[in-house]
């Protein structure tokens, strides 16, 4: 693998982010002054089975692909609930991740210390610090619509972790089973029919949390003009900006705090 030089310095303000996904594990250094990738990202397929040790091996390969200074902050975005350095759920990964001390495993394998965060939280933090919600005061809810629904609540720039608002029970259903973009595809819903489900979902979330702003991410946000204007909500609802770099950027920024 080609090694790319990314020496950190006080002036450069570089941190490194890794985003673990069900299909790929990607990482890149991030310029913290702009929120942009300082070098092109490296992406390696998620191993099968995606056990903790197999994933840690890939994380090590991604880190080794860059000539990082020893003190470079490193963050890892994980697709599930995390408590400290421990992974508590295992969506799209092997069940052996439940209860795994990922921070300890990465340190043992690479000698590097990492900051571990939920991937939706990382993406949400990136949107508040660098993206669609930059400069917004108060409470921001960043929701990612994809296979499921991810959520990140940021208040006054501070992340409230592991909200998991996609799993609210609404009308007797796990919300993401009916309102995620995967439900639109699975049931071949029109944009208007899907928007009606989103209207119900976001109205319930608004009644519970009362955010000052909704930001909608996920791949479907590229077509935001087809469904966001159909929603009538109290707070503004706008599309995310960072999209597929948000996890890397957000977790790098969290690691550098």
How would you describe this structure to a colleague?
The chain is an alpha/beta fold and 257 residues long. The protein folds into 2 domains: 4-121 and 246-256, Nucleotidyltransferase, domain 5, CATH 3.30.420; 136-240, ATPase, nucleotide binding domain (Nucleotidyltransferase, domain 5, 2-Layer Sandwich). Helix content is 29%, strand content 28%. It has helices at 52-64, 102-110, 119-129, 175-179, 181-187, 191-209, 246-256, and strands at 4-6, 14-20, 24-31, 36-37, 42-45, 66-68, 74-78, 82-83, 86-87, 100-101, 115-118, 139-145, 149-155, 158-160, 169-170, 173-174, 213-217, 237-239. Strands 2, 3, 4, 5, 7 and 11 form a 6-stranded mixed sheet that branches. Strands 14-13-12-17-18 form a 5-stranded mixed sheet. The longest helix is centred in the C-terminal third of the chain and has 19 residues, at 191-209.
* Name given to the CATH homologous superfamily of the largest domain: ATPase, nucleotide binding domain
The backbone outline, from C-alpha atoms, is: globular
Give the low-confidence spans.
1-5, 7-12
CATH classification, class level of the largest domain = Alpha Beta
Helical segment count: 7
């Amino acid at each position: 693998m080609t090694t790319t030089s990314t020496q950190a310095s006080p002036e450069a303000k570089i941190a490194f982010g890794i985003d673990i996904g069900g299909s790929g594990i990607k990482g890149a250094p991030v310029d913290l002054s702009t929120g942009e990738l300082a070098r092109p990202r490296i992406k390696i397929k998620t191993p099968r089975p995606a056990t903790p040790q197999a994933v840690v091996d890939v994380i090590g390969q991604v880190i080794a692909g860059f000539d990082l200074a020893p003190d470079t902050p490193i963050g890892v975005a994980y697709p599930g609930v995390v408590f400290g350095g421990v992974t508590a759920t295992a969506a799209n990964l092997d069940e052996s991740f439940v209860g795994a001390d990922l921070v300890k495993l990465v340190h043992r394998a690479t000698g590097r210390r990492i900051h571990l965060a939920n991937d939706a939280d990382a993406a949400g933090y990136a949107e508040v610090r660098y993206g669609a919600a930059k400069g917004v005061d108060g409470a921001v809810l960043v929701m990612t619509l994809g296979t499921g629904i991810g959520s990140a609540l940021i208040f006054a720039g501070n992340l409230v972790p592991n909200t998991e608002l996609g799993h609210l029970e609404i009308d007797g259903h796990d919300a993401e089973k009916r309102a995620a973009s995967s439900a639109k595809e699975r049931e071949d819903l029109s944009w208007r029919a899907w928007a009606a489900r989103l209207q119900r979902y976001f109205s319930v979330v608004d009644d519970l949390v009362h955010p000052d702003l909704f930001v909608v991410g996920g791949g479907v946000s590229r077509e935001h003009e087809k469904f966001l204007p159909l929603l009538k909500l109290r707070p503004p609802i706008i599309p995310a900006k960072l999209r597929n770099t948000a996890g890397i950027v957000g977790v790098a920024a969290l690691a550098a705090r």
